Amino acid sequence: MLKVTLIEFILRGIPEAFIHLFAMYAFTGVKLDKRRYVKTGIILAIMMLFIRFLPISYGIHTILIIMAMITLSITLNKLGIIETIRAAIINVIVQFLAEGINMLLIQGMFRKSVQEIVSDPITKVIYGIPSLIIWMLVIFIYYKWISKKKGRSHD
Q1: What gap in Å lies between CA 103 and CA 63, rounded to an integer?
Q2: Residue 97: which domain range?
Q3: Is residue 155 part of a domain?
Q4: For the chain, what is the domain count?
Q5: Which residues, 6+ apart, have CB-to-CB distance to 86 below 8 Å?
Q6: Side-chain half-sphere exposure of 54, counting CA atoms within 13 A
Q7: Tens digit of pLDDT per residue, the chain (155 long)?
Q8: Cα–Cα distance between 44 and 81 in angstroms, integer?
């Protein structure tokens, strides 16, 4: 079971859920439906919180979150099954790469160990912000690029 504080849920969990969903739209090439996006983002954030409270190994949490993301994207956002599965895999790879880059930067610049960073919820959130930004930028740039390529303008 992972310990998730209220501050971590608000400052990391909720933005992470919305980035996951934005990535699903970007990597499936579907125009963002704002109403469905917000509704699904809130549901996904709550599901992610409950999944993290389950008494299971850390890697299993990730798999369950991916499954929740796929299920919600298909059922609530009406995204295609195959495209959604592919998008979820790409999204998680991009997320892991962003977090890896962030960890390398933190360890190189600040000489902090992962244990030091994750020991305090506030420190964990602050040091995690660059990975969220990197992850979101990659997805946003791809979303804009694919929009131009398809000749559509997305908000």
Answers
A1: 22
A2: 6-150
A3: no
A4: 1
A5: 27, 28
A6: 16
A7: 677 899 999 999 999 999 999 999 999 999 899 999 999 999 999 999 999 999 998 889 999 999 999 999 999 999 999 999 999 999 999 999 999 999 898 888 888 777 888 788 898 899 999 999 999 999 999 999 988 887 755 55
A8: 18
Structural tokens at position 112: 């902090």
Show the tokens assigned to 108: 């190189």
The three-state secondary structure class of 82 is helix
Say if CB 134 and CB 102 are below 8 A apart: yes
Q: Which long-range contacts (CB under 8 A, 24 or more apart) does 130-135 make?
A: 130/102, 130/105, 131/95, 131/98, 131/99, 131/101, 131/102, 131/103, 132/12, 132/15, 132/16, 132/19, 132/98, 134/98, 134/101, 134/102, 135/19, 135/94, 135/95, 135/98, 135/99
Q: 98 lies in a domain?
A: yes
Whether 18 maps to a domain, the answer reads yes
Looking at the domain assignment, is residue 1 inside a domain? no
Structure-token match 């956002």, residue found: 77
Structure tokens at 114: 């992962």
- Please give the single-letter amino acid code of residue 43: I
Retrieve residue 119's tokens.
């020991």
The owner of tokens 């997320």 is: 95
